[in-house]
Each structure stands twice: as structure tokens, then as C-alpha cells.
Amino acid sequence: MSKPLRVAILTHEDLIPPTPLKDVDDKERQAFQTERDVYVALRKLGHEVRFLGVSWDLLPIREMVEEWKPDVVFNLLMEFQDVGAFQVHLVSYLELLGVPYTGCNPRGVLLSRDKAVCKKILRHHRIPTPDFAVFDPGRRVRPPPELTFPLIVKSVDEEASFGIAQASVVRDADALAERVRFIHEHVGTPAIAEEYVDGRELTISLLGNERLRAFPVWEMQFRNLPEGSVPIATERAKYDKAYQKRVGIRCGKARDLSDSVVRRIQRLARRTYRSLGLSGYARLDLRLTPEGKVFVIEVNATPDVKREEDFALSAKAAGIEYRRLLQRIVDQGLRYRPYGKRDGV
Predict the structure, then answer these.
(1) Which of 106, 211, 308, 339 registers the highest number of CB atoms within 10 A of its CB?
(2) How are beta strands 218-222 and 200-207 bridged, if at all?
């Protein structure tokens, strides 16, 4: 058992769980379930835990660090001032304050969050990822001749499948222009269109800084997809329980993968993690084609650590119980040293 620590859970101010919880319905609880799970688990580990909620001002972070002096910040804050791309600045601020924190370092967050930059780095390291093009707002959408339809259109930097639906998979120039316009107008970011890879929807989670632990390969299965639909992790597929039941979506350990394929995926995941300079923990989204080719689709440097989400469930399948997983995440945060920083400096 590690010694008791002062742990500050950093999150959006609207996601601090209310007390008492007895009058909160299940739908409302879903919004802050991650925060609740982390808080309860850390308390049961014997740590002193406080919430720190921010959204528009950095001053509360500095005040807590100076006054309460937490040993580590458990970072669950995925945006600042309602802008996801500002997430990197929050992590940078924690480093400037000199307080240890959990999760990925600023450089890793920056490189992985921008899907276009991420893919360029992966291609430099010869890590297979689909061909792509980026479409900025205000410019005419022309299909690049080097891309082959069908394409899948997404936000270039939003996470959690935000803006992804069955209509995201486009098969001609008109549909491409329409979906790019949707991303520009409804998500508010540039759009990225990449060649759609037909195959199995896999993920793999990793934990560590220099020494990496890869958890079992996970899969999202679709058993009752309507005719004409494609097996992709849309917003509805991830968060709409009624839709999940109707379409027969199951997430769990990938079945019928040979040991050689699993080892190949794990090696690819570790190469990707190191190529982007990630730290703490991460989850990679992959596609496995019927021919056995593996493509890295996206890299999530800050995956959800809710007890019943894929990251924690795959850790459990590897024999790491939830409380022990969170303790390991804390330990990685305490061990991490910012890039270029020397001890005592």
C-alpha cells in the first residue's frame, strides 16, 4: 500500500458530483460518473482527495497548489473555456506550477489531439494510417485526387466521436462537401477526411512512461446493424444505450485473434505511443482488415477512466483491479519528469 497522498481531482466545474446523490437520476449521473468513480476509488485507497473545478479562470488552480499543496493532481479536465484545443495549455500550466499530475504531457497531448499532425508523424515513422486531407472553413471542398472513396469525415481535433455519425462515411464529392460543411458549422473546427478502412473496430490501451504495459485488445462489435450502415464508433454507438441495445453493440476483449496478431498490435501500439512522446496512459483506435492489415486510426492521450469504460475494463481483463489501476496512474504521474527538466531545477 502506497503512503496516503493529497490528491486534487481537476475537472470542469460543472462535473463536480453533487452531494447528496440520492435525488440525482441515472442520466444526470452519467455526466460526472468518471469524477465520482475516481474520487471514491482514491478515497478507498486512503488518500485525502479534493475536487478542483475550473472552466474559465486558471487562478483557482494556482491557489489550490499554493495553499493546499497537493502531492499530485489527477487531471480529468478535457477542455478550458469550452475549447478542447486549450487542453494542452492546462497541462502546461500544471508543469509551470511544478506540481505532479496524471495523464499525458503537453507535447503528447498537442501531437495526438490534432489528427492531421498525428497522422503525419505516424507516416514519418512508417506506422500504417489511412491517407487523408484537411478542409479548413471558408474554402471550397474538392476531393483530392490521391484519396479513394469511401471517406470518413471528422473534426480535426474533437474527441469522443463528437460529430461522427453514419453520414460521416461519404461515397462521392457531393456527400463529402455536405459533411465537411456539417463539421464546420456544427462542430466549429476544420474537418479531416480519411480513407475509410473496412474491418473490425479495435482499441488497445497502454499504461506507462518509459516502460509500457499493453492491455488486452478490445473490440466494438455490431451484431444487428441496419442494412447500409457501417461498423464505426459513432456518438450514438458510444453513448446512446437504447441504440446500443437495438443495434446489438458489444464492447469486450477481441475474440479469435491469433497470438501473432495480438503481438503485432501491441508492438504497433508501443511504437505509436513512443513516436508521439506520450506519457501516463493512452488508448489507440485501430482497424483490422479482413486481410489482416492493422491501421492506426486515432490516438487518445486522455481516455476516459470511468470504472465501466473500455480503458478500465481492459485493465481489469489484464488482472488490474480498478483501485490498483488508479494508483498506478497516480504513481506514473509522480514519476514523470517534464521534458528538459532536471531534478532539483
Answers:
(1) 106
(2) antiparallel
Q: Is the dihedral of CA 278, 337, 215, 262 positive or negative?
A: positive
191: Cα separation from own chain's centroid:
18
User: Where in the chain do CATH 3.30.1490 domains reside?
Assistant: 131-195
How far apart are alpha carbons 239 and 260 in whole angstroms?
32
Domain with CATH 3.30.470.20 in the chain: 198-335
The CATH T-level fold of domain 131-195 is: Dna Ligase; domain 1 (3.30.1490)
**Per-residue pLDDT at 340:** 60
Measured between alpha carbons, how far is 217 from 313 in angstroms, rounded to an integer?
11
pLDDT per residue over 323-339, tens digit each? 999 999 999 999 998 86
Instruction: Name the helix (H) or strand (E) containing 331.
Output: helix 322-335
- Residues 198-335, CATH architecture: 2-Layer Sandwich (3.30)
Q: Is 325 exposed, middle or buried (0-12, 13-18, 19+ CB in 10 A)?
A: buried
- Cis peptide upstream of residue 150 (ω within 30 degrees of 0): yes
- Residue 242 has a pLDDT of 83
Q: Which amino acid is at 11?
A: T
- Measured CA to CA, the distance from residue 149 to residue 182 in angstroms comes to 19
Q: Could you give the CA distance from residue 294 to residue 200 in angstroms, rounded to a whole number? A: 10
Segment holding 39, helix H or strand E: helix 26-44
**pLDDT at residue number 345:** 41
Between CA 268 and CA 212 the distance in angstroms is 12
Nine-digit cell string for 208: 506507462
Q: Which residues of the chain have pLDDT under 50?
A: 344-345
HSE-CB of 175 using CA atoms within 13 angstroms: 13
Q: What is the pTM of this model?
A: 0.93
